[in-house]
Amino acid sequence: MRRTLVFVLCLISSACVYVPGPGPYPYSNQSTGNNLDDSSDSYQDLNDVPEIPVPGLPDIAISSLQPNGQPVIYFNPMLVAQAGPYITKYTKMHEYGHIMLGHLQKQYYERYFMTNPYSQMWTNHTRELEADCWATEHLTEDPAAIRSAINLFQSQGMFQASPNHPPGIARAQKIMECSKE
Fold this sequence. Notes:
Layout: H1 2-12, E1 51-53, E2 61-65, E3 71-75, H2 77-100, H3 108-113, H4 125-137, H5 143-156, H6 168-180
Parallel strand pairs: 1-3
Antiparallel strand pairs: 2-3
């Protein structure tokens, strides 16, 4: 709730500051700590992932890496306001999915993020669909967010947000498949 409040507060304030969440998310793994595990690039705890507002960001949210190798989520407060609470929630979970699934590997920092922290060149159709499925599986208690994502992607048809993203219709299909499992 508090993290969502941060998104909303950024809409009415020009001085947005990250405020950490109130406690562990139900899918975080507290036993492994708050850092990227050296044996794996998957992140074990989402409580310390900063969510940083970036007005003008060309997407509602983008997951990235900081120079220290820690994950970060950048979001566009104006697009968040336009998208509404359900799409925002789904998008945030999708970005967390990239982090939890290990899609953001440490070696990507110099290759993709050092010159452009908002790069999406590291992703591909498979990773996007995996993150969609992860988000869907972790939003089973919020079917409105899942339905909103399906509706949005169905309305996009064959449109692709970038060459690295699958068409909207493929994403909608994947979300429907994952919600039935």
